[in-house]
Amino acid sequence: MAEDAKLKKNHMAIVLGIGLGVVLLIVLSLILTILINRRDRRSFLRSRKNPSERLRKLDKVSPTCTLEKWWMTTKRNLGLSEAVDGQFVCAICLEQVDRTQEIRELRCLHVFHRECLEKWFLGDHFNCPLCHRAYYVADTPPRNDYVWMV
């Protein structure tokens, strides 16, 4: 009888030891995750201070022009007849793009309002909103790229 009680105490001590070890590992991994994300967030915030500098980088891969000018050039390059009339809807705001509005064209030939694509880009989206093709490679990791440890 005394031996059974002693055995139960040993089993209880082992279970408690394993349980505390697991809890300790979880707490340490959470602390490490928070520290890594905080460090990455600080470097990200330093890089976000100057949006005009970031927009100059966007200009290199997607210069602005009016829809009218872009459509005339594109129609000619694709060999389309003059009768073809292009109606474009910005996939970001879902509004029609007027001929006189400034647009940005991506490498995939998708067209968006200038302001809409700039907001998209400044939100750390480096893929086309329609086809998800990358149009820009970020200097720093995007802010929504967190390291999670399990």
Automatic annotation (TrEMBL):
* Ranges that cross the membrane: 12-36
Which biological processes are named by the entry's GO terms? Answer: protein ubiquitination
State the Gene3D superfamilies in the record.
Answer: Zinc/RING finger domain, C3HC4 (zinc finger) (3.30.40.10)
Q: Which InterPro entries did the record assign?
A: Znf_RING, Znf_RING-CH, Znf_RING/FYVE/PHD
Q: What are the residue boundaries of the RING-type domain, all occurrences included? A: 90-132
The record ties this protein, via Pfam families, to:
zf-RING_2 (PF13639)
Which keywords describe this protein according to UniProt? Answer: Membrane, Metal-binding, Transmembrane, Transmembrane helix, Zinc, Zinc-finger
By its UniProt entry, which PROSITE patterns does this protein fall under?
Answer: ZF_RING_2
Q: Which domain of life is it from?
A: Eukaryota
Under Gene Ontology molecular function, one entry of this record is: ubiquitin protein ligase activity
**Entry keyword annotation includes Transmembrane:** yes
Name recorded for this polypeptide: RING-type domain-containing protein
Q: Which organism is it from?
A: Penicillium cf. griseofulvum
